[in-house]
Design goal:
- The protein is an alpha/beta fold.
- 51% of the residues lie in helices and 17% in strands.
- It has 2 domains: 1-27 and 121-220, P-loop containing nucleotide triphosphate hydrolases (Rossmann fold, 3-Layer(aba) Sandwich), CATH 3.40.50; 31-120, Rossmann fold.
- The strands form 2 sheets. The protein has a 5-stranded parallel beta sheet, with helices on both faces. A 3-stranded antiparallel beta sheet has the order 3-4-5.
- It has helices spanning 14-25, 32-45, 53-60, 90-99, 103-119, 129-133, 147-160, 167-183, 205-219, and strands at 4-7, 28-31, 65-70, 73-78, 81-82, 122-126, 139-144, 196-199.
- Helix 2 (32-45) crosses helix 5 and helix 3 (53-60) packs parallel to helix 5.
- The structure holds 2'-deoxycytidine-5'-monophosphate.
- 2'-deoxycytidine-5'-monophosphate binds next to helix 2 and helix 4.
């Protein structure tokens, strides 16, 4: 068998779809964004500033990030502490976006990701999985959707939570974040040459998951 790599911009539905595909195929789902978020939390806990590259490089050496699976859920441990409940905040997301450009941070987390994929079949999602982490993955998918559709999805989530928001502001944030992810020096977000492009703008979550499973079965 072999691994599945799913890359794409924020809000394309990667994690929801990767989880469904992993469940259906009996693979382990690896959320690499959660690892970058745990590293970012470590930077915040150590008062490291987002623009201090030398300090980020030095500090990441003492962060021990490990992954365990409990009830099919990925748990991220930071120096022995389960940090799943602490990494989904806006503050951590912002720091993750800054600290994930650091080459030393990436080297450390890419090694961990490659080790995980060696021991078991995985569906791994992120920004550089098909291009850097798993260049030999059996199936690579570049999952995207228009910025407007991604903004609408985010808008609905926020409204459901009772938060006040402006869809045009959300869309602008998405466009800015895409630009940063695609233009950074280290491992920018891009479609691998051998990745299949899937645009989920006019597809349901189930349709996208079914399509990926079908593509995988064709290859396996
Ligand atoms: O997908 P996410 O929002 O949880 O990712 C958090 C941050 O980590 C995001 O700014 C992009 C970065 N990231 C990355 O650089 N490489 C990955 N493989 C996964 C995430």
């Amino acid at each position: 068998m072999g691994n599945i790599a799913i890359d794409g911009p924020a809000g394309a539905g990667k994690s929801t779809i990767a989880k469904m595909v992993a469940k259906e195929l009996g693979f382990v789902y690896v959320d690499t964004g959660a690892m970058y978020r745990a590293m970012a939390l470590y930077m915040i806990n150590n008062n490291v500033s987002a623009d201090d590259a030398d300090k980020i490089s030095a500090t990441c050496q003492s962060a021990d990030i490990t992954i365990k699976y409990e009830n099919n859920e990925q748990i991220v441990y930071l120096n022995g502490e389960n940090v799943n409940g602490k990494i989904r905040t806006e503050e951590v997301g912002k720091m993750a976006s800054a600290s994930s450009v650091n080459g030393d941070v990436r080297k450390k987390l890419v090694e961990l990701q490659q080790k995980l994929a060696k021991t078991t079949d995985v569906v791994m999602d992120g920004r550089d999985i098909g291009t850097v982490v798993l260049p030999d993955a059996l199936l690579k998918v570049y999952l995207t959707a228009s910025s407007r559709v991604r903004a609408e999805r985010r808008y609905k989530e926020l409204i459901a939570k009772g938060e006040n928001c402006d869809i045009d502001v959300i869309e602008k944030d998405i466009i800015d974040r895409d630009y940063r992810d695609m233009h950074r020096e280290n491992s920018p977000l891009m479609q691998a040459d051998d990745a299949v492009l899937v645009d989920s703008s006019d597809m349901s979550i189930k349709e996208v998951a079914d399509k990926i499973i079908e593509l995988y079965k064709e290859r396996a």
